Amino acid sequence: MFDAERIAAEFCEFVRIPSISAREKAMAEELRERLQAVGLPTWYDDAQRLVDGEIGNLWSRIDATAGGKPTILLNAHMDTVTPGEDIEPHRDGERLCSLGDTILAADDKTGVAEILAVVREIVANPFPHGDILVCFTIAEETGLNGAKGIDYDSFSADCALVMDGGRTIGQICVGAPSATRMVYEIAGVAAHAGVRPEAGVSAIRAASTAIAGMRLGRIDEQTTSNIGIIEGGRAPNIIPASCRCVGEARSHDEDKLMRQVDHMRRCFEEACYAVGATLSVDEVSSYRAFFLPNEHPLVAAAMAVATELGHEPQPVRGGGGSDANVFNEHGIPAIIMPTGSADPHTLEESVNVEDMGRSADYLLAVIKKLQG
Question: 296 pLDDT exceeds 80?
Answer without folding.
Answer: yes
